[in-house]
Design a protein that fits this description.
The chain is an alpha+beta fold. The chain contains five helices and five strands. Strand 2 and strand 3 form a beta hairpin. The longest helix is centred in the middle third of the chain and has 31 residues. It is elongated.
């Protein structure tokens, strides 16, 4: 057995991951839900790889009163590169699988983990700026109050309950990272035993 060659089950999982990452381009990655007495049915905003969908125009209208910036997809550089980044990682999954290459799997895992950390930090930074960089001339000003939505989980913002968590695309991206770590660990362990 070649020490750089991966197992058949790793090859199958890499192909599934590649398909999953392509799917993540076309489905929502993250969901933000808001509930308030005046909106008992709730308001939803979905972040995709290349756009924002849901009731974000209503959310923009509400946020105007407390001085938050409006959400416009064309202002986010991330939407221009994220579909290509996911496509690139899918291509690396397929390449590692078809070449049965442990080396490519290791490179893919390292780059994907760096991308994941950067993606989460960038999203947190965007939420921080969105919730803290307020218009000082807003109609409603609560001294010392910021409106940063949670990165993940629940937060009370004035009379709004806000939930934020991964949607299908985000779940695929998180699962891909976990599976890549496991595959790289297992393949490197098998290779060391084979030497």
């Amino acid at each position: 057995m070649k020490t750089n060659s991966i197992q058949k089950w790793s090859k199958i999982l890499l192909i599934i991951l590649g398909v999953g990452l392509i799917v993540a381009i076309f489905v929502p990655i993250w969901s933000i839900y808001l509930n308030a007495p005046q909106y008992p049915e709730g308001l939803a905003m979905f972040i995709h790889a290349d756009k924002v969908s849901g009731e974000y125009s209503i959310i923009n209208g509400l946020n105007h009163y407390i001085g938050m910036k409006e959400i416009h997809a064309d202002e986010f550089w991330e939407f221009k590169i994220l579909p290509f980044a996911l496509g690139f990682f899918a291509l690396l999954c397929f390449t590692a699988a078809f070449l049965k290459s442990r080396k490519i799997l290791n490179i893919l895992t390292g780059i994907y983990l760096l991308f994941g950390v950067g993606f989460v930090f960038d999203f947190w930074r965007w939420l921080y700026d969105y919730g803290h960089n307020l218009n000082p001339h807003a109609a409603i000003i609560v001294p010392g109050m910021s409106y940063q939505p949670p990165l993940i989980g629940y937060k009370q913002l004035l009379n709004f309950e806000v939930w934020s968590y991964p949607n299908l695309g985000g779940a695929i991206m998180i699962a891909a990272g976990v599976i890549l770590i496991i595959l790289a660990f297992m393949e490197n362990r098998i290779a060391k035993k084979a030497v």
